Amino acid sequence: MRLSPTVMYATRRVLPAVCLVAALTTAACATSTTADVEPPTSVPTSAAVIVPAGQSARSAPGTGLTFGENAVLPADAFAETGSLAMYTVTGITPAEGVPENTTRGGAPYYVYVTVTSLATRAGAAPGVMGLSASADGRTPALTMSPDPGLAKCPVTTPPPQMRRGESYATCLVAVADPGQRLRQVIYWADTTGDPALDYKSSPVVWSPAGAPPPSAGSPTPAPG
Fold first, then answer.
1. DSSP secondary structure of the chain
2. d(Cα 143, Cα 75) in Å, to the nearest integer?
3. pLDDT for residue 14 is more than 70
4. pTM for the predicted model, two decimal places
């Protein structure tokens, strides 16, 4: 059910085709009927983000945040020396109406993210690759673009270019393995061998307010 980093990165180019197939076959597919379904909760679907003056420092691996707080991360998970962007995960909630051919017996969730450009000049919109829901604050769950037609998780097309301070809100669909609950969202991309940028070993973690930080997501000590 979970994707390895290599497979997850490969899906970057496959997801649009997957979504198109899902759109063509949704009418023939039953929605998820997993017995262990949680009722949806009310979470913010977007955030009003104000970019502070000056240069923004990249969030360190192992950073713990609550939903609604910002992390500064690579605008492109594949460009370790590229521009940065601000990511605000506003919440995660159990989903309804997700096609069974997407959930494959797992429990679906919606993840809501607001993406804000920090580029000094107009450029391509930052992506969301590297963000995943998680049951333990460390292990990524299967997370993908939504199927067309989900009223509470519409397909979002980012603007072709964005300037510093401009934002867009988007939604992702995550699928929990049977018996799991997805309560957190992580950034876990690893595009370099530099331990200071190893988010795979020590993800940035968003959790509900008041939740203790996951010990598994704490930074890995540097070799001495």
1. -PPPHHHHHHHHHHHHHHHHHHHHHGGGSPBP--TTPPPP----S-----PPSSPPPPPPTT-EEETT-EEEEESSTT-TTS-EEEEEEEEEEE-SS-BHHHHTTSEEEEEEEEEEE--SS-BPPP--TTEEEESSSSSBPEEEPPPTT-TTS------S-B-TT-EEEEEEEEEEPTT----EEEE----SS-GGG-TTTS-EEEE-TTPPPPGGGSPPPPP-
2. 18
3. no
4. 0.79
